[in-house]
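Database export, one record per block. Field names are fixed; values are copied verbatim from the stored entry.
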Amino acid sequence: MHGWMWVACGLITIQAILQQATPITLKYVVDELSNQIGNGTGNYQRLILLFALILVINLGGIILSSISQRLGDFISSRLGRYLTEVYYRQIFSLPQKYFDSEISGKIVNQLNRGILSIREFVGSTTNFMAPALLQAFFGIAVLMYFNVTIGLLALAVFPIYIAISSYSTRRWGMSQAKKNVYEDSVRGRIQEVISNIKLVKTYNTQQREWKHVSSQYQHINDIYDHQSTEYHVLNFVRGFGLEVAFVIILFLIFRSTFLGTLTLGEMVLIIQVLNQLRWPLFGMSYILEQVQQAEADSKAFFEVLDLEGSEVYQTKPLAPVVKHPELAFEQVSFSYDPDNPVLHDINLQLDKQETVALVGNSGAGKTTLINLILKLYEPTAGHISLSGQKYGSVSHAWVRSHMALVFQDNELFSSTIRENVAYGVKGATDAEIIKALKQANAYEFVSKFKDGLDAQIGERGVKLSGGQKQRIQIARAILHDKPILILDEATSSLDSKSERLVQDALEKLFKNRLVLIIAHRFSTIQNVDRIVVLDNGTIADMGRPPELAKRPGLYSELLKYQIEGNKKLLSKYELY
């Protein structure tokens, strides 16, 4: 792309030179006319050649302008792709805590606004700014050559005009930055409302959400009104001063011609060049505005690029996956912030081909423990190892290449069932996808869709029921066939019949791999090899299900509550 930019610069320079060639040629045309009128010595053939030259210059200028503008658009579009790739890659490298504290709509808005402003700035540079600067340079040089006084006066206009423009655009940029804060907030809120439209409609909060967005835009309009008023006042001052200066210079030009120090041809030349200088002056003002706007609109974009990434964007092949991996926690502690510790001194060995359940009250640290295993967060103390390899010395991608995960929340894309089940698996065949769906007790409902595997499921699977979404995730995990399987409340959205069928399929899948299960319904984990009980961020107990059921402690207490709840339900219907 750099090569094309140099080509564009060359074309723009030639174009700026040609723009000065027409007034110079006209100067000789007027001189021929003056000679013919004054003493009859004009050369008609030379006059025809001069007009032919003007035609060639103008046509050449149009051709070069079209080519340079097309080249500018070419560079701008490629730049848009490059900036998107850089930003997107940076997003992949940012730590999970960044996404925990930012609204997705805001991130996307910053991306769109930043890329648009930079693309417009580069496009304006190649199509407008650079030609304006070069035309100003060559125009002043021509004026200085024919009349130093007029050239100096024209040059003196530039710093005054630019100073006013600089102040105006700086004030504009300050207001623009304030507007962007409100716009990011309101766009993020709109996206959240759309994502949670069922919630909004259920609780009849449409008017409240509408008023919130309306009030935010009122702030934006207030800022814009002040911004616009200030800009147009300064623009009037700038324009008024420019017209006064140009009238004074025109008077000097006609005076010099009247006194005979300038020929008619030179007068026409100087007037044309002077009129051409209006465009560079306006152009420089526009340049400053574009620079300020690009700076304000792309500030958040570059702030994201400046953030320190915690992950490497993986492009090289990964080391081979360990067939039967083990996980070890050694004195692991974690906190999202210093005043809110979540895990304390966790020591845990997870052996290969073992099924382990994590249980405990809500907020005990179960999901956080899984997030640490997935290397979404780094321990604040201690370290985690995978088959002897400390997490700190291996890549995030290599750790995750061992794991398949079924989320508690339905993590699905707004595409087809095929794409969601096969997500992350290269070259998965329909037969393999269907087999995974059958094992997850999902093929029965999938086969009823008109488009089958190609059925569109909507944003986050909105066209599916909760249980159907969960089974699509389970099918995805089955298809990945990784040595470590993590189930975060994997059957929480299933009815009793589907849960039993999926449980049977999962128990077959559990063989020959390390399985971690987070579950609140203890009926689903009675056949696991070991249960780890978490309480207040520590391991409160550990053992086989029968042992913990008999041993006084948190597990037996929670189990008792569930059994009593089931008994009451059965007694109510006289089934117990």
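Remark 1: The mean pLDDT is 77.
Remark 2: The beta strands are 327-337, 340-350, 355-359, 381-386, 389-390, 403-406, 484-488, 514-518, 530-535, 538-543.
End of record.
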